Amino acid sequence: xxSTPVLIVTDDIRLELTFDExxxxxxxxxxxxxxxxxxxxxxxxxxxxxxxxxxxxxxVAEVRLPGKVWISEAQADxxxxxxxxxxxxxxxxxxxxxxxVNDVQITxxxxxxxxx
Length: 116
Fold this sequence. Notes:
The chain is mainly beta. The protein has strands spanning 5-9, 15-19, 27-28, 38-44, 51-53, 58-65, 70-74, 92-96, 105-108. 0% of the residues lie in helices and 38% in strands.
C-alpha cells in the first residue's frame, strides 16, 4: 500500500506536506528549499508511526524541490500603498518566489506490510 500525500499551501505561503496515514504530522517543505534543486527523503520509524526527514527505518516518499528563484517585488507601507523613492519610482526588493504545488515532484514507496 502506498501512502497518500497531501500538499497544502498555507496562508503565509508555505508549502506543507502531510500524509493521510500519519495524521497530525506536517513537514514544511519551504524550509528545505536550497539554491539548487534538491531531494527531501521522508521516512517512518520502526514502529511505523513517526515521519522523519533525512534518515529513518522505512522510506515513505522522496520530494524533489526546485532551486530558489529570486523575483523583484514592490514594497508597500502598512496601508498597502506602494513605497516610492525620491523620484517617484516604486521601491522594490528581491524575494524568493514561494513554492507552489506544481513546483514539487513526489515519488512514493509502498508502506511496509503490517501484521493484523
